[in-house]
Automatic annotation (TrEMBL), chain A:
It catalyses: L-seryl-[protein] + ATP = O-phospho-L-seryl-[protein] + ADP + H(+); L-threonyl-[protein] + ATP = O-phospho-L-threonyl-[protein] + ADP + H(+). It comes from Periconia macrospinosa. GO terms for biological process: tRNA threonylcarbamoyladenosine metabolic process. One of its GO terms (molecular function) is protein serine/threonine kinase activity. Its EC number is 2.7.11.1. Belongs to the protein kinase superfamily. BUD32 family. The keyword Kinase applies. InterPro entries: Kinase-like_dom_sf (IPR011009), Prot_kinase_dom (IPR000719). This is non-specific serine/threonine protein kinase. Keywords: ATP-binding, Kinase, Nucleotide-binding, Transferase. Residues 1-35 are annotated as: Disordered.
UniProtKB/TrEMBL annotation, chain B:
This is N(6)-L-threonylcarbamoyladenine synthase. A divalent metal cation binds at H114, H118, Y135, D311. GO terms for cellular component: cytoplasm; EKC/KEOPS complex; nucleus. It comes from the Eukaryota. It catalyses: L-threonylcarbamoyladenylate + adenosine(37) in tRNA = N(6)-L-threonylcarbamoyladenosine(37) in tRNA + AMP + H(+). Its EC number is 2.3.1.234. Residues 33-317 form the Gcp-like domain.
Automatic annotation (TrEMBL), chain C:
SUPFAM superfamilies: PF0523-like (SSF143870). The keyword Acetylation does not apply. This is EKC/KEOPS complex subunit CGI121. It holds the Pfam family CGI-121. Belongs to the CGI121/TPRKB family. It is found in: Nucleus. It comes from the Eukaryota. It comes from Periconia macrospinosa. Keywords: Nucleus, tRNA processing. The lineage of its organism: Eukaryota, Fungi, Dikarya, Ascomycota, Pezizomycotina. InterPro entries: CGI121/TPRKB, CGI121/TPRKB_sf.
Length: 300, 353, 206
């Protein structure tokens, strides 16, 4: 029980002037492990987890992506090796599995999980994000110009694209894989012209957002999902939840693009609903996830 | 501007008095007192006993804090208290005390979000202007970044808080609660050498710690000295695993999880500064690991020591006074408290970046 | 004179690889016996061309064995030599003997791919061409720069069987509204199979 008389009050020393820690201008650069030398590599992204480079692999005409997970100096070396290996293998396994089942994803071209690298096939094309950005831009311009009629054909094509996206996600979920980071940047429209074995190294079929507003890009091309760094094989008892979180993340990405893009997402869900037998359960769960805002309210 | 702040969301009752002389000058701590309720070894603190403790101590602390601060009652601008999140009964005792002195002294009340208190205090004493914040305590595990007048939660625990995980791990190993379980785990970990496999669960920017507790039970059984040596847990080199090894492995694993989700948030928002707040934030190994990560990203870590990491009244007075400065007060009829109070519910009107 | 193609793999430009292909080979059993006797003059990877679908999987096996030869710390060789490693790397499982039986030369092999790493300066395109001309009784097949001829003798059903791909091949793409045109189907099936093989080879031993 409480016995106040026995204890004393802890005084806490007063505030001292702020002492910011020294910053480190001499930032260590990562050197890639063999066989990769920096000369013919182009850094694409530096995420928290991995450095992503574009280069060629196997033949000078086979463009690829190298994902290198550098050792984390803060982690115990044993734990670091364990995690790096597990994550490279998880990503590679999910991609090989999805590829076998006919979901369009980057192919796996090689790995050394002890050294921390994974080589994936390059996907030539534009992201759905770029498509949406271009589309919303044109919608805005048309509204200004009062020429709603010209958008009709494009509208139909956009809905068809949404439908293909929905089917593709359904296909992925139907084989028991959750993407884990399903943003519009991670859904690509693979250029129909991009031959598998030869790099054109040139124009993507879908222009980036910078060139939007003028010409209407082709929406042909296969829906291809990329960046499976956070993907997982779904656990049966939480499959609805994992699928719903995928859809929720994508829905947020749509609404973040532009309010006009939100109705398009309904088309994604419609096609998703018809794509596989577990879709109903996932869509029902999606309503809960929306209410909850992904995160549950927390106890103090 | 002067405020008094009352904090009692967990097992500490604390009172602080702070002065904000001018927006361009650092705040001045006039008084900062607290008293901790320690439960017996192998037990956590229960809401009822903790509330009794707070009630027994709060008046004494308020009197002493005002005396120590050397201020007259009429100099105090507002009474700040922790509205939540936290344990309900202790929160209620503290809110009651705050309402009483507010009515007695005829001062406005300001209900403060406990997490925001930690963040603002951390920013004030470290000088980190716009860091990603890792808030780690017995009740909370959140990765937070400021955007458009909110402290937004980028990642958090999907189940139990990190401090809770460490406390329960300590309890399974019968490690004492005094001064607090995490401190004793930290001291034992310094003598650990061997890394034992402990579940590591990260999902995007979120983390999960319940798997660790299940593993802890098994590990504790494996190092029981009553077992014959051949049945006891051994390292790869054949040595017996010790309690110290388990504490070491726990820290290496759970802190790696925390640093990883923090790094993901930093990469996401493009930040280089990181601020660690909350009771677990006083752990030196966590600070060291966070520092290595931040250095790798070309940035730095800001950490406070236990005087401000651990719950205190000053942080409530400080955050409350910032809010009061924007014209916000809590009317008496709304001056309750709440167990659930998300960091991103607070409108941060005092920042304009 | 046998025609030999020198391959420079990206990132391994300092380590050329000599590749030659023969059809209507009549002395496979002799070649195999030289391998079994470990005759140092016959330090090659002799492969049954029926098991090679296309250049990329072969290039991946070559790349992985070169990588293991050069970086044993992270990717140790699991066989004795770079050439045996190459045969081993092609097989989905970890059985070395089985790798030789399925992918290596057998007494009745008629279409042959010979691979030799230039790890020392004395191994050149010319030296390999000269030696193979004497050693192999068969018709030399010119391998072009992109190596596409390497898949010329692929036995699809054998390859599918060993990599456990059902006869239906890879399942339909993109569901009902798949956008692949019909003309591309055969090519698509090959490239899908190729991708599976490379995935399996990458994950081997994990």
């Amino acid at each position: 029980m409480v016995s106040p008389a026995a204890a004393t009050i802890e005084p806490i020393a007063p505030l001292r002037p702020p002492t910011p820690p020294p910053s480190n201008p001499s930032r260590p650069l990562h050197t890639l492990p063999p066989p990769f030398t920096s000369s013919n590599l182009q850094l694409l992204a530096q995420g928290a987890e991995a450095l992503v480079y574009k280069t060629t692999f196997l033949t000078p005409n086979t463009p690829c992506v190298v994902k290198y997970r550098p050792p984390k100096p803060y982690r115990h070396p044993t734990l670091d090796r364990r995690l790096t290996k597990a994550r490279i293998l998880a990503e590679a396994r999910v991609l090989v599995r999805a590829g076998r089942e006919g979901v369009s994803v980057p192919r796996v071209l090689g790995a050394d999980w002890e050294a921390g690298w994974l080589v994936l096939g390059w996907v030539e094309g534009g992201s759905v994000r770029a498509v949406l950005d271009g589309w919303t831009e044109r919608v805005k311009n048309r509204r200004k110009a009062y020429e709603a009629s010209t958008g009709h054909a494009e509208e139909k094509e956009m809905l068809d694209l949404m439908s293909r996206i929905g089917s593709c996600i359904g296909h992925l979920h139907s084989i028991g894989i959750a993407h884990g980071d399903l943003t519009t940047s991670n859904i690509m429209l693979k250029s129909p012209s991009a031959d598998l074995n030869s790099t054109t190294n040139g124009q993507a079929a879908v222009p980036s957002s910078t060139s939007s507003g003028s010409a209407i890009p082709s929406l042909a091309g296969q829906i291809t999902l990329i960046d499976f760094g956070l993907a997982s094989h779904m656990v049966p008892h939480s499959a609805d939840e994992e699928g719903a979180v995928d859809l929720y993340v994508l829905e947020r990405a749509f609404s973040a693009t532009h309010p006009a893009a939100e109705p398009l997402f309904a088309e994604v869900l419609k096609a998703y609903g018809q794509s596989w037998k577990g879709a109903k359960g996932v869509l029902k769960r999606l309503e809960d996830v929306r209410l909850r805002g992904r995160k549950r309210s927390m106890l103090g | 501007m002067i405020a008094i702040g009352l904090e009692g969301s967990a097992n500490k009752i604390a009172v602080g008095v702070i002065s904000h002389p001018h927006p361009s000058k650092p705040p001045i701590v006039l008084a900062n007192l607290r008293h901790t309720y320690n439960s017996p070894p192998g037990e956590g603190f229960q809401p009822k006993e903790t509330a009794l403790h707070h009630r027994a101590w709060v008046v004494r602390l308020i009197k002493q804090a005002v005396k120590q601060a050397g201020v007259k009652i009429e100099d105090i601008d507002c009474v700040c208290y922790t509205k939540g999140p936290g344990m309900f009964a202790p929160l209620q005792s503290t809110a009651l005390a705050a309402r009483t002195i507010a009515l007695l002294w005829k001062k406005p009340l300001v209900g403060v979000n406990h997490c925001v208190g930690h963040i603002e205090m951390g920013r004030a004493i470290t000088g980190a202007n716009n860091p990603v914040v890792l808030y780690v305590s017995g009740g909370n595990t959140q990765v937070i970044a400021y955007s458009a007048n909110r402290y937004r939660i980028f990642g958090e625990t999907l189940d139990i808080a990190i401090g809770n995980c460490i406390d329960r791990f300590a309890r399974v190993l019968m490690i004492p609660n005094d001064p607090f379980p995490g401190y004793n785990v930290e001291q034992l970990a310094k003598h650990g050498k061997h890394l034992v496999d402990i579940p590591y669960t990260v999902k995007g920017m979120d983390a999960s710690f319940t798997g660790i507790l299940a593993a802890a039970e098994l590990l504790a059984k494996g190092i029981d000295e009553k077992l014959p040596p051949e049945k006891r847990l051994k390292t790869e080199s054949g040595e017996l695993v010790t309690k110290e090894d388990l504490c070491f492995s726990l820290q290496e694993t759970v802190f790696a999880i925390l640093v990883e989700i923090t790094e993901r948030a930093m990469a996401h928002v493009g930040a280089t500064q990181v601020l660690v707040v909350g009771g677990v934030g006083s752990n030196v190994r966590l600070q060291q690991m966070m520092g290595l990560m931040a250095r790798d990203r070309g940035g730095s870590v800001f950490a406070t020591d236990e005087r401000f990491c651990i719950d205190n009244g000053i942080m409530i007075a400080h955050a409350g006074l910032l809010e009061w400065g924007t014209g916000v007060t809590t009317p008496l009829e709304d001056s309750g408290c709440t167990q659930r109070f998300r960091t991103d519910e607070v409108y941060v009107g005092w920042r304009d970046d | 004179m046998a025609q030999v193609r020198t391959i420079l793999l990206p990132h391994f430009e300092d380590y050329p690889v000599q590749v030659a292909m023969f059809k209507d080979v009549t002395n496979a059993s002799f070649l195999r016996s030289q391998l079994l006797q470990a005759n140092p003059d016959f330090d090659y990877a002799f492969l049954d061309a029926a098991m090679i679908l296309s250049p990329l999987p072969l290039f991946l096996a070559i790349t992985l064995s070169l990588h293991s030869t050069l970086s044993p710390a992270t990717s140790p060789l699991r066989t004795r030599t770079p050439h045996s490693e190459l045969v081993f790397r092609l097989h989905p499982n970890n059985n070395i003997g089985e790798s030789y039986r399925k992918f290596g030369i057998s007494d009745d092999t008629t279409n042959l791919i010979a691979v030799k790493f230039s790890l020392t300066p004395d191994v050149t395109n010319e030296s390999v061409a000269k030696h193979l001309s004497e050693a192999v009784q068969g018709v030399s097949v010119d391998v072009g720069e992109d190596g596409s001829e390497l898949g010329l003798f692929a036995d699809l059903s054998k390859i599918k069987k060993i990599y456990k791909v059902n006869d239906g091949g890879v399942k339909g793409k993109g569901g009902k509204k798949g956008v692949t045109d019909q003309v591309g189907t055969v090519k698509d099936e090959r490239s899908a199979l190729e991708n599976i093989i490379m995935g399996v080879m990458t994950l081997k031993g994990s």
